[in-house]
Amino acid sequence: MTTTLPDQRKQTADVLNALFSPLEKHLAEYLKPQQIARIRDAFLFSAEAHAGQMRQSGEPYITHPIAVAHILADLRMDEATLIAAILHDVIEDTPTAREEIVHRFSEEVARLVDGVSKLTQIRFKSKAEQQAANFRKMMMAMVEDVRVILIKLADRLHNMRTLGVMRPDKRRRIARETLEIYTPIANRLGLNALRHELEDLGFKALYPLRYRVLAQAVKKARGNRNEIMQEIQHRFENRFREEGLTAEIQAREKRLYSIYRKMVQKHLSFSEVSDVFAIRIVVDSVDDCYRALGIVHNLYKPLPGRFKDYIAIPKANGYQSLHTILFGPHGISLEVQIRTREMHQFAESGIAAHWLYKAQGDQGSITQARTREWLRDLLEIQQKAGNPQEFLESVKVDLFPDEVYVFTPMGEIFELPRRATVVDFAYAIHTDVGNTCVACKIDRRLAPLSTQLQNGQTIEVITAEGAEPNPNWLSFVVTAKARTNIRNYLKRLRDEEAIRLGHRLLTKSLNALDTDLDSVPAERIEALLKEYHYNQLSDLLRDIGLGKRMAPLVARLLSADNSEDGDNAGQVTARNAPITISGTEGLVVTFGKCCYPIPGDEIAGFLSTGRGIVVHRRNCPNAADLGKHPERWLELNWAKEYTGEYQAQIVIHAHNVRGGLARMAGAVAETGADIDDVRFDDRDNNITVVNILLRVKDRTHLARVMRRVRREKGIIKVSRS
Questions:
Q1: 3-state DSSP of 94-107
Q2: What count of Cα atoms within 13 Å lies in the side-chain half-sphere of residue 9?
Q3: What angle do CA 342, 348, 349 make, to 5 degrees?
Q4: What is the pLDDT of residues 233-251, one digit of tens each?
Q5: Which of 166, 492, 653, 671 has its CA 20 to 30 A from that of 147?
């Protein structure tokens, strides 16, 4: 029996309804019907855009964005975020243009989707410089709109949940990346529920044997302690009723990765971890928190020195609770956490809770305030950091802080990372205080500026007018703000030296061309500064002195057409022929065969003996290796107008079926691209891996080729090499 077209459409509609229905019920808990209708519209749009695409698990691709939206709905995110989550791969993986999203939905949604698409291109590599640059992109995307990172975190969580279909080596790489980058960001934003799941999934994938052993140990301990925990919970409930205090009391279990990290950091065996099992008490008000603390301390004795008041002094991410360790029955140690309902909401959802409370008219929370403050600091550090590695080094200290709390002589509390020094404290007060500090008093006694601070100390910083930061401070400061400001001050001193050196190098290169800087028309200098986006000549000279610009190349541009009449004096270019790369006029330019850059890629140039300027994609692995010679690197941009075709290479994973290669070639030909070479990298009984070297016009043309090939039967994956 033949299935008619209307029947097929009905089946498709039924499948899509079945996919969206659970999310729709979830959204109905907090969104209005008209908002849900717009989200459904986005779902249907995304399903059509991703039609025919499959995940490695064999499921339709649309199951992934709908799962990401589910995760964000758990966080009670707003309509724009949910729509962007459902559309987050359409720009990258389908022919959909950004303008279409603006027209169909909104500029806000398009901006979020565009932000996530740019982050999707990030690949965390082992090479420190490449990883640092990618990390900076993550942080700056978060500064622009934190919802971009929330979508990316939800995207990563669903990918971690479905990690089992990956090769073991790829699973480990993704798991390590998750634990090193994504979970610290989730922690800093207060997204504890999401962070804990990411940590446990990453732990399981990276260290499967350790995970199983620890899970078995916890299961065994759980069986021994179930009755004891129930006994404690009943005693708490009875006493709270007697005192007339309303509370929700829950027994909870520490997450496996948290147990593992504590064992590693403190060199403990599993039996020595005291807070594997705990009690969480949720009450109505802050006053009730302290009343509850008194009740539990009357029932069981507290361990001396193990009480922490995170309500009076919240953690860096805004987390608030009372923590205490008790001597429980039968000699066990028991952790108790006490918090209000609002504190619990923010403890689980962090900054994401902002959108729920915003809808309810709430003015904000400590979590939001702390996050805004941290994002402002990130922006300041980004502006002052000299390079991506410096930025990474500075910010990573702040991602998983183990806090210490100290006081000014006026009683103001400052929160700093563990091992912070007096200089860190001085910069926390104000940049000018840090720059001019010369001595200090800790609890009214003189102490060195390098002294590491302890909880509860009172710090007085002594400053002197005209004092300057000491380069030796970099050997002991730990906070991003201190390190960045010290380096920024020293950088200003280095800049003056770099300008003098750049002037000497450029003068020498111009002399080799039988001219000098004074002979170059002012109009030509202005044109070159505008072309390279410099405000003044000293900026160009500084970059030459720092090795960011090549003096011979700049000299050649400045001296071009110097002997001709003054009508052309303001022109930088020396030829009328089309120029592919801006600023390479008259020079030999070749394209790296390692990465095959094409118009639309971010590019850089390497000055190679005998080959002229070799153009690489910025994310090319070889470019990272060549970074050992920064003095030979040039910043390059594609010309506004370019012509011709450029080589690019794609890798196709496909099921091994008869006629498959012919269909791939036909699909490529349909898009107007030419094939230069075909190579088979790997072949087994089921899967074929094909490398195809193409000629395309630009990235847009290449994307069209890849989308067309993906539609062929038996295609598993198409990527660019």
A1: CCCCHHHHHHHCCH
A2: 3
A3: 85
A4: 899 999 999 999 999 998 8
A5: 166
Task: Read off the amino acid at residue 305.
Answer: G
The overall average pLDDT reported for the chain is 80
**Stated pTM of the model:** 0.56
Enumerate helices (H) and strands (E) in the chain, giving the number of each: 28, 20
Phi, psi of 54 (to 5 degrees): -125, 150
Instruction: Kindly tell me if the per-residue pLDDT of 579 is higher than 60.
Output: no
The amino acid present at 297, given as its one-letter code, is: H
DSSP 264-309: HHHT--GGG-TTSEEEEEEESSHHHHHHHHHHHHHHSPBPTT--EE
- For tokens 């090193």, the residue is 180
Where does the pLDDT of residue 356 fall: very low under 50, low under 70, confident under 90, or very high at 90 and above?
very low
Q: Are 690 and 680 in contact (CB under 8 A)?
A: yes
CB 87 within 8 A of CB 46: yes
* The predicted structure's pLDDT at residue 380: 60
Measured distance CA(124)–CA(127) in Å, rounded: 9
Rounded CA separation 695/675 (Å): 6
Strand partners of residue 247: 283
471 vs 292, more confident: 292
Residue 379, pLDDT above cutoff 70 = no
State yes or no: is 92 an active-site residue.
Answer: yes
- Hey, what domains does the chain have and what are their CATH numbers? 22-204 (1.10.3210.10), 209-359 (3.30.460.10), 407-478 (3.10.20.30), 491-638 (no CATH), 646-720 (3.30.70.260)
Residue 124 pLDDT level (bands cut at 50, 70, 90): very low
The sign of the dihedral angle between the CA atoms of 591, 594, 600, 602 is negative
Of 653, 713, 715, the closest CA to residue 683 belongs to 653
Q: Of the residues 92, 100, 284, 309, which is catalytic?
A: 92
The pLDDT assigned to 137 comes to: 57
Q: Cβ-count burial of 561 within 10 angstroms (0-12 exposed, 13-18 middle, 19+ buried)?
A: middle
Yes or no: say if 705 and 671 are a contact pair by the CB < 8 Å rule.
Answer: yes
Residue that has been written with the tokens 């210490």 in this structure: 404
pLDDT at 472 over 60: yes
pLDDT confidence of residue 202? 94
- Residue 643: what residue type? T
Confidence of residue 462 (pLDDT cuts 50, 70, 90): very high
User: How far from each other are the two terminal CA atoms of the chain, in whole angstroms?
Assistant: 45
Q: Which two tokens stand for residue 28?
A: 């109905």
Q: Looking at per-residue confidence, does 614 or 685 come out higher?
A: 614
Reply yes or no on whether 424 is catalytic.
no
Helix (H, G, I), strand (E, B) or coil at 60: strand
What is the bridge-based pairing of β-strands 715-720 and 646-655?
A: antiparallel
469-486 mean pLDDT: 86
What's the farthest any 2 CA atoms get from each other in the chain?
99
Residue 490 and residue 471 in contact, taking contact as beta carbons nearer than 8 Å: yes
Residue 581 token pair: 């790369």
Interatomic CA distance for residues 604 and 599, integer angstroms: 12
Contact (CB, 8 A) for 597 and 591: yes
Q: Which of 190, 218, 188 is nearest to 203 (CA)?
A: 218
Query: Which of 79, 93, 114, 197 is labelled catalytic?
Result: 93
Residue 409 has pLDDT above 70, yes or no: yes
Asked if residue 713 has pLDDT above 80, the reply is yes
Strand order in the sheet with 674-683: 674-683, 687-696, 646-655, 715-720
Pairwise CA distance, residues 7 & 117, whole Å:
35
